[in-house]
Amino acid sequence: MSPVSPSIEPPSGQMTVSRTAPFDPLRFCVYATVALLAWLVSAPVMMMAMSALGLWAYTRAVRAGLTRSKCVLRRPRLVLLYLATVFVAGGLALAYRMVGW
Description:
By secondary structure, this protein is mainly alpha-helical. It has a domain at 42-99. The protein has helices spanning 26-40, 43-63, 76-99. Helix 1 packs across helix 2 and helix 2 packs antiparallel against helix 3.
């Protein structure tokens, strides 16, 4: 018997409860919602909105001490550069749509 997790046997005939949580595909719901908003609003506006949220979140995380990200780019500075580039690209695309260059 372990002091951290005691072994308790359920009475016979009762089901045991699994200790692992089932996989929650929340990220796919988030992706679908972002795609829907991009389709309804405007792709450049959504690019700017999502990258601005990312910039805000990563800036706070870096100030709190984040040194390695789960993002593919791994380094928070590279992630911030990527998000800033997406924001600028969204602004240019929005200007292109409005002015029609």
